[in-house]
Amino acid sequence: MRKRHSLRHMDLVGACLAFVRVSERGSFTLGAAAARIPQPVASRRIAALERHLGGRLFDRSTRRATLTPFGHDMLPSAKRLISLAEAMEHDAERARLAPLRLAVPDICATRDLALLGAEALRQGIELDLHPAPPPGRDDLLRTRQVRAATAAVPPGEGKWTVPLGVGGVVETHAAAVYLETLRVGRGDTERRRRLWIQPEDDVPHIRDRIRRHGDAAGLQPSQVAVSTALASAAARVLCSADLLLCSAAQARQLRLHWRPIGEIEPARGYTVAAGTGTDGRWVEEALDLGLARCLGATAAGRGSE
After folding, report:
1. Of 52, 56, 53, whose CA–CA distance to 68 is shortest?
2. What's the predicted TM-score (pTM) here?
3. Tens of pLDDT along 25-46?
4. Which of 31, 150, 274, 303 could tie 280 with a disulfide, CB 3.0–4.6 Å?
5. What gap in Å lies between CA 295 and CA 250, rounded to an integer?
6. Could you tell me where the beta strands, DSSP code E, fall in the chain?
7. Partner residues linked to 131 by β-bridges
């Protein structure tokens, strides 16, 4: 059998491009110019391709570059290879330019998200941000509407941790607010004060823990309430003595007085979940500080102060 010469050490696509352009122009000189390579390079690549394929592609007995019957047979395959290579380059460019769709908490401030986007742009990535509550972020990732999402996880299991406390309109000089202070006596006719849980904290590792400690402190079940929207919960707090479970950063934004909870230390935990490990690692590493700022954490693994 004829020994085939491998093209492992040459550019097969480049050789086919030279072959096609020379065949189109009928000239090694003009074909090389069309392929944007020097004429000697085109000749070497075509010669190597002939050795690889085991047949002559051009009849060199005439001044014009004329295809041999073998060359005619190989030309369609060479054109398909070039088309595939061009399509791959086009797809690669489109993939590089495509925004990275990222689901983020809908409690993030617009400026913080803008700063996060600017930070990503400086690293050559455009972010397409999708604010949503925890279940919404999970659904966006599950249905592949985003490539990555900041997922809510128990503190200690994620990269970022944000301590929670309570915010209210009434200023207190106590170092902490105890849930038992919300308990009302049997004969007390005043409206029961409520502790409002916003959608971002309506996750088992936060909500259920607050409810258990509320029960232990003697609160009525209705005193630990889950709101469908942060604005609705904040409105209740702003016009009453109710409290909002929130981070210190959120309390400042809402102009509420914030204190930690005396009996427990609830906290939000966040990690980056992604369809591929590469996306998740890039977001966590490249956007570490920007995401920490958006989430209300001063740095990875540390809560807001």
Report:
1. 56
2. 0.68
3. 999 999 999 999 999 999 999 9
4. 274
5. 10
6. 58-59, 66-67, 100-105, 127-132, 148-153, 160-163, 165-168, 195-197, 224-226, 243-246, 257-260, 267-274
7. 104
**Residue 177: DSSP 8-state:** B
Query: Mind listing the pLDDT tens digit for each residue in 152-170?
Result: 999 989 999 999 999 999 8
Reported for 4-10, long-range contacts at CB under 8 A and 24+ positions apart, including other chains, are 4/51, 4/52, 4/53, 4/54, 5/48, 5/51, 5/52, 6/52, 7/48, 7/49, 7/52, 10/45, 10/48
The one-letter amino acid at 148: A
Helix (H, G, I), strand (E, B) or coil at 9: coil
Residue reference for tokens 């942060």: 230
> 107 lies in a domain?
yes
Burial letters for 222-243: b for 16+ Cβ neighbours within 10 Å, e otherwise? Answer: ebbeebeebeebbeebeeeebb
Residue 132 belongs to domain with CATH number: 3.40.190.10
- Residue numbers of the domain that contains 277: 99-159+268-295
- 78 and 215 assigned to the same domain: no
Q: Does one domain contain both 63 and 202?
A: no
Asked if the structure places residue 212 within a domain, the reply is: yes
